[in-house]
Amino acid sequence: MEYNKTSIELFMYDIIAIIDKGHKESVDEVEKQIDNNNISQYILKKYNNLTMIDLESSDTNKLTSQRIDDINRAYEYNLSYIMGNESRKFGITKEDNGLLLLVAVGIMILGS
User: Fold this and answer.
1) What is the DSSP letter of 18?
2) What is the mean pLDDT of each run of 10 residues along the chain (112 residues)?
3) How many domains does the chain have?
């Protein structure tokens, strides 16, 4: 699968900033948004004041639009591997650690 790894890296920095501020997401909600091919829009809209990637510019900025597409495709491509392996493969045992799951999967994506 081809995508710009910088897009994933920037998204992970955004997720880390969100976690640092004490926010949480459920694993179920994160997996649902990945399955809907909407994880980047969901996170970037909900936490727009904490993210580097500006969702609002995606209509006019081709690079931002491409980054959003890269993020969605990369996470969606790995969804079948993610679901059911949250604890065993990624060490995510609490239901409200969906943001940490995004970081763990992002590391896996960047390593592939």
Assistant:
1) H
2) 88 96 97 96 94 78 89 94 87 95 95 87
3) 1
Q: In the structure encoding, which two tokens stand for residue 89, read together? A: 């493969």
Encoded tokens for 67: 């980054």
Q: Closest Cα partner for 64 from 43, 47, 40?
A: 40
Domain that holds residue 24: 5-111
* CA atoms of 10 and 74, how far apart (whole Å): 13
Q: How far is CA 98 from the centre of its chain?
A: 9
Give one word for 78, left, alpha or beta, with left for phi > 0 and alpha for psi -120 to 50. alpha
Give the pTM: 0.91
CATH number of the domain to which 81 belongs: 1.20.120.600
Instruction: Give the pLDDT of residue 66.
Output: 92
